[in-house]
Structure formats: C-alpha cells, structure tokens
Amino acid sequence: NLTFLRDRSLSYDRLADLDSTVDVERARAGYAQSLEIRKKLAAVQPENRDFQQDLAVSLQRMGSVAPTPADEEHYYSEALRVAEAFSQSPSADPRLDSLIRNLRNLLGRGE
C-alpha cells in the first residue's frame, strides 16, 4: 500500500529529525531508510507531486547529515534536480519554489 509506505517514510524522517542533534549516524540511517522508500514511491508514480516533493526533501535531509562535503553536494544537487524537474509540471506545488531557493543557497548558487 503506497499510503502505508509514505507514512512509514515520514516516521523514519521524524525519528531521524530527533536523532540529528544527538546522534548524526543514527539520523543518517533513518534518513537513508526514508530515502529508499521515497525513491521507490517516486519511481512507481513519477507523476505524483507529493512523492516527487518527498523525494527532494529526503535528499535534502540526507545532505544535511552527509559525512563529507562531496556527499553533501551530491545529495543537495540531486534534490535540486528533482525539485526543478517537477517544478515545471502543471501540478507542481508552489512550496517547491522555497525548496529550490533553499537548495540553491546551500549549493552556493543563490540568486
């Protein structure tokens, strides 16, 4: 069930959010579990706005706990790619603009 999987990924994110201030390795593991689920959901329904936005946010979160600057840039770049691609869709969520701006700033590409 796709709804169950999405809810599960959100649970992993929430737990990782709590862990991120005290145990970065544990947070990274939680975000990674969420990311794997979100990749699958986005692949199953590429037209689904929520799944694409969730994927971009998950990639951003992985970047925030990345072990190296290269990994951080990789995750932020992937998040930006997903967000920008979907922002062109007629069903794009206006909140994507904020996410895109934030990612560009994180990558030093701010306007």
Report on the architecture of this protein:
It is a single chain. The protein is mainly α. It is built from five helices and no strands. It has helices at residues 2-19, 24-44, 49-64, 69-87, 96-106. The protein is globular, with a radius of gyration of 13 Å.
Helix content: over 70%
Please compute the radius of gyration using only Cα atoms: 13 Å
Tell me the total number of β-strands: 0
Structural class: mainly alpha
Low-confidence stretches: none
> What is the number of helices?
5
Largest β sheet strand count, sense and barrel closure: none
Question: What portion of the residues fall into strands of 2 or more residues?
Answer: under 5%
N-end to C-end Cα span: 40 Å
Mean pLDDT: 92
Secondary-structure element order, N to C: HHHHH
Which word captures the global form? globular
Give the topology, please.
Elements: H1 2-19, H2 24-44, H3 49-64, H4 69-87, H5 96-106
Helix pairs in contact: 1-2, 2-3, 3-4, 4-5
List key phrases describing it.
0% strand, 77% helix, globular, 111 residues, mainly alpha
Briefly, what is this?
The chain is mostly helical. The chain has helices spanning 2-19, 24-44, 49-64, 69-87, 96-106.
